[in-house]
Amino acid sequence: MTTNETPASSSPKPSWFGQMASGRTGPALAIAVIAAAFGGGFLTAKTTDGLSFLRPRAAVEGAASSSAHNGANGWSLFGKPRSANAPRRGPARPDGFAVWRSRIDTSRPEPQACIELSKPLDPAKSYADFVLVSPELASTPAVSVKDGELCVGGVGFADRRITLLKGLPAKTGETLDANADVDFTFGEKPPYVGFAGEGVILPREDSDGIGVETVNVSRLSIEVWRVVDRNLVRKSISAPEPTAQGDYPSDYGDDSEDGEGRRVWKGEVTVKGEAGERVTTVFPLGAVLKEMQPGAYVIKAVDASARGPKDNSDDDDNNLPAQARRWVVFTDMALSAYEGSQALDVVARSLQSAKTLGGLRVALLARNGETLAEGKTDSAGRVRFDRPLLDGEGAEDARMVMAYGPQGDLAVLDLDRAPVDLSKQGVGGRAAGGGDEETSGRKASSVVDGYLYADRGIFRPGETAHLNVLLRDHEARAIKDRKGAVVIRRPSGVEFKRIGFDKTPTGSVVVDVDLPKGAPRGRWKAVLEIDGLDGSAGEMSFSVEDFAPQRLAVTATGQEAAPVGAGEARTIDISARFLYGAAGAGLQTQGEARLRADPDPFPQFKDYKWGDQREAFEEKFLELGSTVTDGEGHAIIALSTAEAGDTAQPLEADVTTSVFEPGGRPVREGLNLKVRTKPVYLASRSTRPTRREGATR
Question: What is the pLDDT of residue 106?
Fold first, then answer.
C-alpha cells in the first residue's frame, strides 16, 4: 500500500484512502485500517459463503466456474463458494412433542419405515395401538421404538402412509395433539445381496453349488477364501447377516476369515433377472476349486454393478455396495457326538448315503490348535475319546472334533455349540450338566444319576404332593446302598422339609409332601442330595397355586438365546389364545422381572467367581408396565437394562408375563434372559488367586 495509482476502471477511493496511501496519516491509523480491511474481507466472504446454500445448484456451480476464470478478481482470500455436495442443515427439531423427520431402513431384507419424534419414547409402552398403515397390511404391523424413533416393519416396498394417532405418548408424559401423517415413497427397491438358507454345510456329492439371492443386481463379484483346519479352532463357523447398501460390513471378529484365511479364487458372475425381482444365482464352489484340502471356506459376494468402490475404502457411505459372506464346509461327511460321564463317542456318516464311514482319521483339538487325541473310526463309524480329555482348562480345553476324508474334505463338530436339549421335549427331573437349562442340555456327570417326577405339576395349598425318585449309575443299574435326602424348598429358596433315607433297596424313593394351607404360592423345588457328593444329583420343580381349570394359553418370547446388552430395551412378545381356539383379544397384560446376579454366566469357566465379589449385586424388582392384547391376541412389553446400573457382575432377568382372563384371573408365563452390561468380564478362582481370566459375552 505504498502507491497512489488507481486503475481507470476503478471507482474513486475516498480521500482518507489516498491520504493513508501517501503517508499523510499516522502509523497507528494505517494499522487500524489494514486490520479493518482484512476484517471486512473476512466478513464479506463468510456472509457470501453462508448465503450460497440458498442459491440454486446451477448458480453455485456457475459462481465457482466464474471464480476460477477471474483469478485474483474472484472470491476473497478468506472465502469460497460451498460445494454443491456439502452437508446441509436438515429440518429443525420442532418445539414440543411432534414428528421431526423420517427415513427408510433398508439394512434388512425387508425394509422398515422409521419416524423420529422430537422427544424420546417409552419402550415399555405398546405403540402399535397408535399406528395406522394405509393401504392396510395383511397382518398387524411390527412396531418397535428406540430413543425417539418409531419403526414399522412388514410394510414391504409399496408406497405407504403411516398415521400416528392423537394421544401417542412420549417418555416424558406428553402426547401428540393431533394425528400426524407421514408418507413413505420407496420407489425402486435397493440392491440386496444375501445367501439362500441358514446352513453352512454344502454336500460335496449331488449339489450344484451355493445359492446367492439378489435384488436389482446385474453382476456379482465373488471371492473364495480358505481357512486351514487348525486355524478353525479360533473361528466361529456361522452365517452372518447380509450387509445393506451404504452400510459397512462387519467383516471382523470370530466369524471373519481375517488373519487366518487365504484367497483361493476371485471372479465375477452375471445375474439374470427382472428389476425388483428376487433372483437366486447358483455359485458352483466345487467347479472353481483346483484341489480339495482340509479346511473351511468363506464365500464373499459383493454387488459389482453398484456405483462406487468395491473395497469399502471410500468415506462416502452411500457408495458402499450391498454384500454378504457365508462360511461353507464342503464335505460328504457328517459327525454326531454323544457325551457321557465316561467318554465322548463320535459317529461319522456319509451325507449322500447316511451310511457309517469306517477308517476315517478323527482328531480332538484343543483351543490352541493342538491335538489332544486321534483315532480311527471302526466298522460302525465310531471313535471314542475318554472323558479326562474333555476336562482341560484354558488353552487345553477341548474345542473341536475334526474328521478327515480320503478326498481332502473335512467335517467339523464345534463342542462349544449347544447340544440337543431333550428337556424341551418334556423330559425333566435330571440335574443339568451346567449352564443355562435352556441351552446346555441334560447329562449325567456324577456317580449317581437321579431322576425325580411327581404325579402332577401343580398343587393347591393343603394338598399332598407325591414325588418319586429313581437312582441309577452310569450304566443305568439301580443304586441301593447310598445315603441321601430329598430336600423341598419354598419359592424363596428357603428349605421347607428334608426327607432322608439310608438306602434304596429298589433303587427308588417315594416321598409324600404335605403342603400347609398357608403354603406360599409359586414354584417349589425338590432336590436330591447324596452323601459324599457335591451339588445335587437330580431336581424338579412344581407349582403351588389357587388354580381353576385354565381357559387361556399364553406364550412369551424374547430372543432368549441373545444376551440383553447395556442400554438395550429387549422386546418381549406375548401371545394369548383361548383353549377353544379364539384369539385372546382385548385382555389386560402386564409384566414384571427380577434382576439378579447370574450364578453361572459362562459355563465353560467352571468354579470361577465373576465381577467384584466385595460388592454383591442387590436383587432388583422391575415393573415392565401393562398393555392390552390386540385383535390377534398379541402384546409387547419391554425389559430395559437401565436400572442394572454400573455393575461388574453378569446378570440374569427372570421375567414373568401375566395375561388376565375376562374373569380377572391371571395366566402367567415366564422366561429367563441373560443380561450383559459389560463387553468384558473379569473372573477369579480361589485355587489360583493370582490368575485372572477374561470372557466376552
Answer: 75
Q: Count structural domains, the chain.
A: 6
pLDDT in tens, 213-259: 888 888 899 999 988 888 888 888 888 888 888 888 777 777 777 77
- How many angstroms separate the CA atoms of 353 and 332, rounded? 9
Identify whether residues 362 and 489 lie together within a single domain: no
Let me know if residue 391 belongs to a domain. yes
Residues 441, 418: contact at Cβ < 8 Å?
yes
Which cell numbers hold the place of 207?
449339489
607 and 670 assigned to the same domain: yes
Residue at a domain's end among 130, 156, 184? 184
**Residue 157 located in a structural domain:** yes
DSSP SS3 for 58? helix
CA pair distance 221, 299, nearest whole angstrom? 10
d(CA 696, CA 399): 17
* Domain final position from 184, 202, 218: 184
Cβ pair 549, 502 in contact under 8 A: no
CATH (domain of 443)? 2.60.40.1930
In-domain check, residue 241:
yes
d(CA 273, CA 74): 52
Say how far residue 35 (Cα) sits from the centre of its chain: 60
User: What is the layout of strands, in order, in the sheet containing 552-557?
Assistant: 552-557, 569-578, 634-640
Helix (H, G, I), strand (E, B) or coil at 102: strand
Rounded to whole angstroms, how far apart are CA atoms 65 and 59?
10
Average the pLDDT over 388-405 and give the result. 88
Q: What is the rounded CA–CA span in Å between residue 363 and residue 377? A: 11
Cell of 460: 393347591
Give 19's DSSP letter.
H
Radius of gyration of the chain (CA): 34
With respect to residue 94, please indicate whether it lies within any of the assigned structural domains: no
Is the domain of 221 the same as that of 297?
yes
Whether omega before 505 lies within 30 degrees of 0, making that bond cis, reads: no
pTM, to two decimals: 0.44
Which pLDDT does position 429 carry in this prediction? 55
Residue-range definition of the domain harbouring residue 594: 552-696
